[in-house]
């Protein structure tokens, strides 16, 4: 009965909703997990996790008895949690990455909150030493940037203070040690040392009591696998190794004789990936991977029975016991599978109940996914291989994507949740993946069978799986798609079977096998060529016969090539050459070559963009119809809209994609048709500026209003500003407040907050609220968010203050508040300022002729009127002046002026170009200059300068004729 209750509870929590799958959002799929690094506290009272949302990163404290989060430590959006450990029931050790620097902290549980104290000493935690109260083993860096560490046993309180005076130092030579491990059972320190010259690594150990070091073994780095698991006694170690064995197995190793002993455990089919022993030295469990999912085999009867129950409950899913407290009889579980992105449970052995804690991806928890079918395939030469077929669901384009994995040696497909597979399956594509020969997890012989089989037996294995699948499932179209080796394999499959494949997508692929051996002088050396040979086989002229570059005439299918220009694994030249030869022969080839990108993307946006352009290529090439917007759920409609918007973003704002504004507009229009809020806003901006689309403020306003109705904060912000300034619309303070307030409600970004602040300072008396204005501008609130947020707030506050000093109708008391705010933020000492020695007109900048000298702006047109000027010289309009304050101008004094540039249109409206608050010491020359670009029509530009008492100190109009750029000097 208890087992039935457990299974029923689990089933109620983890079985996906029986919904039909529609397009899934790439933005929700290709992203970090909300919860990660989940751990039990030693008391079992709390669970901690690394929690991330759009605004910040946190260390979350979850109270088990309350079954809810009770507090969070705000780590800041600029910081990333690199790892942490519970030291005891009340203290933790954390590593945080800040701008590529690792900073360590001790966390103290006070009440139900964690308080952090920074550790000033550089180093890392080796072990928490549970047998020594309030002490830890810590590796302290000898000096800045050193790779050598000194090893200490130190009190936690002393570590937090950086006080090593009373710490016990373990005697050792740490010059070549890359890491330390502590064996709690025998109280031994274990090290792994690498010798760069000899290309060997050595495993050594020392008992904590005497500090004398002993060598376990020294190996060539590629001789065979050897990983220590547990000291069975003083001289015998349990190791994972493939020495004299096809599979990784667990066996004894005698240190004194340097001989391998009896095999402790081996699996007949799979490599052992991990093992653990209990406190009495008995084997507790081993793990291996079946269909890519970790399987745990427990040898204790109770635990083995429990794991069987879990396996039955979570069929075809991976269940990890990620933490366990034997005394409390509770376990922390993690579940993952082809249709399960990840969930965490806590299981209480005494009550025999499990409760779900939280999910890995909150945005995915209410969605359904396409299950994978695990397939056993017999190859032509009788080898059994694994394959995974994921069928399209509600939307089905009757298209099979054959997706070879990378590597090809030492990589393995699995039945875990696969973001890429789910992305394509939800869009109507079925996906086939194969663990062909060479894949990892099946032993050395299976891996070695893939060496040198590029374009040969590997592709035959894939086709064996394709043939088996297509006997029971019929498809109208078939395409090959893959990355790295998968890109090569996709091309070769279409070359070898042109009648089957209708299109190809190759990402970061290799297409010229001889080039692998001689891409550069560095890569033509013997050592490098030997390493390549372990995958490709020895260099020989026959490699040309299995290189897509030289077989391009046999390729019939259209192809999309994706590559990173900085790729040093599959050199960019592979894709570039293949693209060139295909283009020259008029073969249908498209390409996306990413700038500043290596062998794959460094952020999720790159993955989203790649998925979107790939999906769009497949749909367009196969002439497949997109589902009509009205047939889709809101989430699925947004998913398709996001794809088009991601493509458009690449063409207009992504440094890694070559700009193409025409394509950007096209894809924003496609996204807008599926109600993408930001795409509608961007189209409005194009009409507003007259760039890419004809200037049309009516259309701009229409797109802004549609975007605002779809809940886009920036659209509300834009409309609010237009109503506030009387641009296009008649000035309407009520409408301005509605839109600005909604923008701030939807997204309290610095720009939205401070635009609303400007409203409260400049609006008529009925709406004015100066204290609220200053509260929204205060920088302290943004300092806590991130550097980017703070810097944006500084810029926005500066612009808003110019508006206020130039436009606001303030009472004497209100002006006093604004001045006090400005004085405090800019540390001003004087607000009464005048302008002296004014030089105004058109200027050109001249570099200094002396090395290291300062250049200068030289006046070329005193009245600012000009007809033509030298195209090679950038022109600036404006004024140079000396600021003057009452008394003696000193370097320690600080003052400020508020300046703005605007144009006046033919109908008398103002369009503001720039707001700038200048501040600093009133010594030397200040400038307020605006750089002029090529103009298509005449215009009048005005510069105004105000002091902080709202006195206008300067005003000047500049007449700009059309097309002022010329190749002739003034």
TrEMBL record:
One of its GO terms (biological process) is proteolysis. One of its GO terms (molecular function) is serine-type endopeptidase activity. SUPFAM superfamilies: alpha/beta-Hydrolases, HCP-like. Coiled coil: none annotated. Residues 417-623 form the Peptidase S9 prolyl oligopeptidase catalytic domain. Transmembrane segments: none annotated. InterPro entries: AB_hydrolase_fold, Peptidase_S9_cat, Sel1-like, TPR-like_helical_dom_sf. Keywords: Hydrolase, Signal. Residues 1-21 form the signal peptide. PANTHER family: DIPEPTIDYL PEPTIDASE FAMILY MEMBER 6, SERINE PEPTIDASE S9 FAMILY MEMBER. This is Prolyl oligopeptidase family serine peptidase. It comes from Thalassomonas actiniarum.
